Amino acid sequence: MEQPATTTTRSSRLNRQQNQQNNQGLNTQRQQQQSGQQLNSQQQQNQERQQDRQDPNRQQNNQGLNAQQQRQQNQQAGQQLNNQQQQQQDRLGYDAQQNQQNLNAQRQQEQQGQQSNYPQ
């Protein structure tokens, strides 16, 4: 009776080993499939990028967008320059006005001083 149990044990052990080997083979196959899928995905992305680079319409669209952005930046820079110039002109005008008022006040004081020098 013990021999069949030993045979069964041996058979079970062999079955387990066979199952483990099969599982290892399946796992390896799955890993290879996943690696292949990743590689295919990368290749497809690279191909799409290359098509984008080679597509003249896409290049023209990008050039148009770049030109539009450049125009907007130039307009903003021009507007900033205009604002700075306007501020400088305003400041110069204010300074000139202050100088004129100071001169007028100084002349009035001088005239009043001269008038007070003359006896009435």
What fraction of residues sit in β-strands?
Answer: under 5%
Number of helix segments?
Answer: 2
Number of strands: 0
Distance between the termini: 156 Å
- List low-confidence stretches: none
Taking all Cα atoms into account, the compactness measure Rg is 46 Å
**Level of helix content?**
over 70%
Order of helices and strands: HH
Structural class: mainly alpha
Would you tell me the overall average pLDDT?
82
What is the overall shape? rod-shaped
Major sheet size, sense and barrel closure: none
Structure description:
Helices cover 96% and strands 0% of the residues. It is mainly α and 120 residues long. The N and C termini lie far apart (156 Å).
Task: Summarize this entry quickly.
The chain is an all-alpha fold and 120 residues long. Helix content is 96%, strand content 0%.
How is the topology of this model organized?
Elements: H1 2-54, H2 56-117
Summary keywords:
120 residues, 2 helices, single chain, mainly alpha
